[in-house]
Amino acid sequence: MLPRHDNDSRSLEQYCKDTVMTIWHYHGGCQVGRVVDSEYRVLGVDALRVIDGSTFNASPGTNPQATVMMLGRYMGVKIRSERLKKL
């Protein structure tokens, strides 16, 4: 753990240096229904999808790597299937 500063009024930059570490798995910044639709397409942007941990509404628990990989695989298979139907 990084040392913490006694002064809570320090800058946001110092707060992040003190508290943000790679052991945390951040999620929820790209919420389904607000930033992406149910097919993970970015609202208002053509041909862009976000399929990663930022779309999680809740933490899947421990290391989310398997969950992210399965979400990516599921959506990849689904997208491929949809494209093959159009041919």
TrEMBL record:
Name of the protein this chain belongs to: Glucose-methanol-choline oxidoreductase C-terminal domain-containing protein
Pfam families, alphabetized: GMC_oxred_C
Residue ranges occupied by any Glucose-methanol-choline oxidoreductase C-terminal domain in the UniProt entry: 6-72
InterPro entries per the UniProt record, alphabetical: FAD/NAD-bd_sf, GMC_Oxidoreductase-Related, GMC_OxRtase_C
GO molecular function annotation: oxidoreductase activity, acting on CH-OH group of donors
